[in-house]
Amino acid sequence: MAPHFVFPRTLEELEHEGQEDDNRLCVQNPVDVASFVSSKLEEFVKGVSFDLSDRDILCIEEQDLFDRVYSLVRAFPILSPSSKLTLLETLRSNLAVLLPNLDFLSRASDDHVPLSSHRNAFKIYSFFLLSILLALHSNTSK
């Protein structure tokens, strides 16, 4: 199973690794997407969106994909409107697919490992979507 995701107080706290023995999911290799030219950034967003859509719903727990999604969420204010929509829709869609699976497993499963992974993914998707919402709110209140 992937390391546990613990809600940080801020998005940036995910870059500060916890202690080695606490088995928490933190960002290990953030991508500096702010330095990308717009065409490269668009392709990066499309690649992340494709990976999230094409792979297992729990793929968000994989370190490489987690780091790439984090990097895009952190840079959300500088993304083009189409990239913002792509990222937001992909995260929302995956969360919508995850919820019925989580509900089913919580009612029917005695095996806590899959349920734990689904809960972990639920927290990750929720946190990233909440971070985007807060970024949008911050930009509109300026």
UniProtKB/TrEMBL annotation:
<dbReference type="InterPro" id="IPR026971">
    <property type="entry name" value="CND1/NCAPD3"/>
</dbReference>
<dbReference type="GO" id="GO:0010032">
    <property type="term" value="P:meiotic chromosome condensation"/>
</dbReference>
<dbReference type="InterPro" id="IPR024324">
    <property type="entry name" value="Condensin_cplx_su1_N"/>
</dbReference>
<protein>
    <recommendedName>
        <fullName>Condensin complex subunit 1 N-terminal domain-containing protein</fullName>
    </recommendedName>
</protein>
<dbReference type="GO" id="GO:0042393">
    <property type="term" value="F:histone binding"/>
</dbReference>
<feature type="domain" description="Condensin complex subunit 1 N-terminal">
    <location>
        <begin position="82"/>
        <end position="141"/>
    </location>
</feature>
<dbReference type="Pfam" id="PF12922">
    <property type="entry name" value="Cnd1_N"/>
</dbReference>
<dbReference type="GO" id="GO:0007076">
    <property type="term" value="P:mitotic chromosome condensation"/>
</dbReference>
<dbReference type="GO" id="GO:0000796">
    <property type="term" value="C:condensin complex"/>
</dbReference>
<dbReference type="GO" id="GO:0000779">
    <property type="term" value="C:condensed chromosome, centromeric region"/>
</dbReference>
